[in-house]
Amino acid sequence: MPLEIELKFSNPDFAALRRRLLELGAAPLDRVFERNLVFDDEARSLKSASILLRLRTERKSLLTLKRPPVREQEGVKVFEEIETEVADPSAMQGVLEALGYREAFVYEKLRETWRFGERSVCLDVLPFGRFVEIEGEREAIFEAARALGLPPEASSTKTYHALNQERRAREGGDPSESFVFDPEERARIEAREFGDPWPPSTAPGNDTILEKTVRNQ
Fold first, then answer.
1. Could you tell me which residues come within 8 angstroms of residue 150 by beta carbon, excluding any fewer than 6 positions away?
2. Residue 55: which of 66, 47, 44, 45 has the closest Cα?
3. How many CB atoms lie within 10 A of CB 166?
4. What pTM, to 2 d.p., does this model score?
5. 92, 135, 141, 177: which has the highest count of C-beta atoms within 10 A?
């Protein structure tokens, strides 16, 4: 089964990261708004087994199953992952519910994705903070983090769900597992974080695009 290997870093400087990614020849790929439905049975047996069953909708819809690997890798988050594109997410949700699964929680995310060699670098905005997530082979992740100037002390192998639960416990907030944007706040965040020209480019004749990208941050 394919492995998902990744590492998160909290509170990144997106403007500095974009500049560095461009300097290193990384390719900007996409910007999307994600809505993720996580399913489980009434007993939350999938959660107990550290299994994630997720239906994600952005430009396309994806059904994903993640489960712990046979062998962990030190310093990174690793899951076995099966993922497939879904033509009709509403129909798929009906299938999952017919099999005894229900919507356990919902989470949303604004994601900007770059390709950096054999790694993907994602600039993520969630309702509770900003993160950068690097996915690839373990050593390649560490190499990319060093090249991008991401401090090791800001790294985390936890899921966004776990980080959200920790934050809620720390702040004494609503214990709900969901984390979604208020529509007005989402619009403000999109304008602030992702309102610059896309994709940024340093190609001849496009220097002004890069200048606007940096200036607007």
1. 9, 12, 132, 134
2. 66
3. 13
4. 0.88
5. 141
Q: Residue 32 is encoded by which pair of tokens?
A: 């999307």
d(CA 154, CA 173): 23
Strand partners, 35: 57, 108
Residue range 78-113, pLDDT digits in tens: 999 999 999 999 999 999 999 999 999 999 999 999
Determine the length of the chain: 217
Structure tokens at 65: 């199953």
Place of tokens 């769900």: 161
